[in-house]
# Entry
Amino acid sequence: MKKLFFVLAILLFAESAHAQLFDKERLANRETFDKRFLTWGYFLGFNSYDFKFEYKNENPNNRTDILVEGDAGFNVGLVGDMRINNYFNLRLEPGLYYTQRNLRFPGFEDEKDILREVKSTYIHVPLLLKFSTKRINNFKPFIVGGISSSWNLSSNEDNPQDNSAGEFRMTKGTNYFEIGFGVDFYLYYFKFTPSIRGVFATSDELVRDQDPNSPWTSNIEQMSTRGIFINFTFQ
# Structure
């Protein structure tokens, strides 16, 4: 699924860039848009979340590693952009992110002990610094990076039941750093921006089972989220 996201995004960038570069008329759209101090918009997109596990006792044959099966999720949110100068912008992009990850634990025979479905609904709030190149006709590439925090509305951190009762628990709050790239396309009525970002959690999100020898969580040193966002922004 991640490879498909990248292929679709690259094709979109290539097709749009070709149209902008080789259009004979090359009319400049939205010429004064980037001169505004504050601009607003919204985004729609897709996500693919994963987990990175670090283990207390590493197995060189990976026979005891937890298998993560990620599904494509959906993003929607708002964009607030503050112009610093011709090349730098500060952006706030609060959004709602829906995702699901399925974890498969080795060493069990019963499916109810093997599979844990982790459904998450995040309020995700990144603060990003955007660095853009000089505008070329009607498009402008950029890179973006920053920090973010999320609040998991689906968290069961306070649930007294754990994996022995079928409950896989995660923390409510998580912090990340983010990095990505995209292209601003200046259309006649609005600015359209496809972008790709990678997000990497900086904190441990696992709530461990009460049993210190739990076959599900006892060997996990840290569990942290990794993800890929593909967003389409309209301003």
Summary: Residues 135 and 141 are 8 Å apart (CA to CA).
